[in-house]
Structures are given as structure tokens and as C-alpha cells.
Amino acid sequence: MSTDKYQSPLSERYASREMQYIFSPDKKFRTWRKLWIALAETEKELGLPITQEQIDELKAYQDDINYEVAKAREKEVRHDVMSHVYAYGQQCPKAKGIIHLGATSCYVGDNTDIIVMTEALRLVQRKLVNVIAELSRFAERYKALPTLAFTHFQPAQPTTVGKRATLWMQEFCLDLEDLNHVISTMKLLGSKGTTGTQASFLELFDGDQETIDKIDPMIAQKMGFAQCYPVSGQTYSRKVDTRVLNVLAGIAASAHKMSNDIRLLQHLKEVEEPFEKSQIGSSAMAYKRNPMRSERIASLSRYVMVDALNPAITSAAQWFERTLDDSANKRLSIPEGFLAVDGILDLCLNVVDGLVVYPKVIEKRLMAELPFMATENIMMDAVKAGGDRQELHERIRELSMEAGKNVKVNGRENNLLELIAADPAFNLSLEDLKKTMEPSRYTGRSREQVECFLNQVVAPILKEHEALLGMKAEINV
């Protein structure tokens, strides 16, 4: 590794090799050559004087890219596409004259961008499905474990550990819906010429409109796509990039929310992210177990959410049929958005797979607050025993304030049950009151909701994407 120039942390620390290759120069230039072959084959099949020998020559050197020739040529002509046309022609002298015939640079540039983004979206899809699967296992395991719920991060009516996980899962399921839609609607640019009018093909095919209409569908089919965008300027609409990055930003937002909850739960010592045997939490405080993976999820997620502004602004700022102020921004914002989300999902998979739950800590915190939660049930029992509901409500309120003061001011245990038992208005013994302290009585339908969600929502998703399951995540640092 070079230490004397900037290295992107997305490559060095966060993104997988698989995602890095999708956005690599090698992947790009190999795709260019596939597109040139698809164009030449299409033109041959539609009647242009291109021979099978020329096609075969192009295919023979499809993956044998002479990078040094292209690099040297680009220094002379300052044009990356024409440099690679030249380099390919050097290897394929018989086909040299028909490479890139009728096309403009965006034929290879923009079609490759769509192909690369689509492949990257499919990798994101695979990882997202596996995160949902891992969360489903966690939710099933802890579907009935009562835990204190929070509203405004203040103690609230209990839920279960598994039910809380379904809240994270549901957001990822919504992201998967959006992701699947975008993948299913991705289209190629096709080959439409310098301003999208296909004027060059009108010339090549002597004005044969019917034949020209076949060009884009044939190229799309050869490159594994159902369609091309029906109209364009020189480029495909940059609105496409906006849609893609918005999906990534949505995944990032869901991951950020989950990671925040895990960080707060780790502070409460109820749930803990994986912590390796030799991992160091702090350079100064040796006892610390910082939630660094969840913090990294949050950090990368914020980057992606902000990055989504780039293609939106670029799309809005395009002039007429084409300007080039998209290029430098696009080279950064699109790959980095994908590399960051790739790292986020690997971290999510790693964290959820290794989440540690501490039931005793959860129970202790819940039992400290449960008397307050149980007051309505206690009041109903007292009314059944002959008490006055309005009077009992006021006494409960007063005793709750007293117990709260005992906890917060005096630092003692919650003694609300003892206070109620000592009050003759309730006519309930401490033993009677303690019988009401079964946590599962206060979690409502949490368990049933988890089971219903996993069976009716998650199971069909995992069945539909069964071929994508089985991933395990490795994180670099």
C-alpha cells in the first residue's frame, strides 16, 4: 500500500472487494468492449457490411485489454473513449474501421454506468436480504423476552426484544421494495447519437426507419436488459442517478436508526454488539467496550444520506441535451455511495449476527419501572375489591410521585408496591400486588405481532429471494 498519497477509506477500510471491482477501471473497460461488440453485431445483423471475421476478432480480444497503449494514446488525444477505440483497433486490425460505428462516447460511457449501477444494486439487494434474514432469526429467538420500551427515551409500556427488532426489519423491508422497483426499471441508454436523435444511423441505414427502430432493443437484449430509455439527449436522464442514490440513502437511514438503538441499548448494558477477544475499546480506559461497529454504521450512513444530494442537484443543473458538469461529480458520488452502503450492510450483517442480549439486566431495569406501568391494573383490582375509581386514581398519582422521589432524590429502590400495600384505600396485600408483577402481562401482543410479521411479511420475502441467502460478512477493521 502506498503511504505517500491519499487512499480512500471506502476502499481501504469499508467496502468489499466485490463492490470495489464493480466500480473498477477494469470492469468499466471490459464492459466498453462488450458494448462495442454488441453494437457491431447489431449493425451486422441489420445489414451493414460488417463480417463475422471482424466480430470474431473483436471477441478474441474482448478481455485482453492493452492498457499501456490506451494510456499512451490518451496522453496525446486527451480523450478516454477514443484512446480505447484506438487501442482496441491496434489489436483488431481487421475490425478497426467498424469499432464504435455510428456511436458517440456516451454509448459506452452511459450504458456502462447503467450496467455497473444495476450490478451494484443487485449486490446491495443480496446483502440487504441477508440482513433481513439475520434480523428475522434474532426476532424469532427473542420474540417473547419482555423489555422496557421507550418513548422520548423515557420508560414506557413494555415490549419485547424481538418486537423491537421487527421495527428495524420493517424499515429494511420497505427499502427492499424500493430497491427491487428500481432494479426492475433500469434501462440502457442504447445508441442514440450525439444529441439523442440517431441521426448517424439515419445516414448509415439510408433512412430506413423500421431498421433503426430495431437497434436499441437488440443492443439491450445482447447486454441483458429488457429495454432502453425511449428518448434521451446525448446522455440518459441524470434523474436515474437520483433514483438510485435515493434508494441507497433510504437503506442508510434505516441502518442509522438501528445502529442508534443498539448504541443506546449498549449504554444501558441490555444488548451489546460483537466485541472480539483482543479488541481494544479505548486507548486510555482499558475496561471500555465501545460500540464502534454501530458508530461506524451511523457515520457512513450520514455520508450516504448527504451524498444523495449530488445526483439530485446534478440532474437539475443539466442544460438541454448535454453538459459535462455532471462528469466529475458523478465519478465520485455514484461509486462512493455504493461503496459506503456496501460497507454499511456488511457491518449490519456482522453486528446483528453477533448481537449479545443480557436478559438479567433487561429484567432488572424492567422490574424497577414495572410498578409504575402496573398502576392501572392495580387500580382495577382495587375497584373490584370495592374501592372508588376516582379516589384510587388520585391516591395512585400521589403514591407514584412519592415513589419517584424516593428513586430520583434519595437514590433508593422503587417502593411503590409497598406504599400501595400500606394504604388501606386499596385493600390489597403486598403479596397480591407482587402477583401483578409478571412482565409478560404488560407486553400486549408483542409476541403475536412478531410471529405474524415473520410469517406473513418476512417469510415470503426470504422465499422470493432464497437464492441470495447464506452470506456472512467480514469487516476489514
List keywords for this structure.
about 475 residues, mainly alpha, two-stranded antiparallel ribbon, two-stranded antiparallel sheet, 21 helices
SSE layout and pairings?
Layout: H1 9-14, H2 17-22, H3 25-45, H4 52-60, H5 67-77, H6 80-91, H7 105-141, E1 146-151, E2 154-160, H8 161-184, H9 199-204, H10 209-212, H11 215-222, H12 239-267, E3 271-272, H13 292-307, H14 309-317, H15 327-353, E4 356-357, H16 359-373, H17 375-384, H18 389-408, H19 416-421, H20 430-435, H21 446-464
Antiparallel strand pairs: 1-2, 3-4
N-end to C-end Cα span = 16 Å
Which overall shape is indicated by the principal axes computed on the Cα atoms? elongated
Note poorly predicted spans.
none
* Fraction of helical residues: 55-70%
Fraction in beta strands:
under 5%
User: What's the main sheet like?
Assistant: 2 strands, antiparallel
Number of helices: 21
Secondary structural class: mainly alpha
Strand order of the largest sheet: 1-2
Radius of gyration: 31 Å
How confident is the prediction overall: mean pLDDT? Answer: 93
**Number of separate strands:** 4
SSE order: HHHHHHHEEHHHHHEHHHEHHHHHH
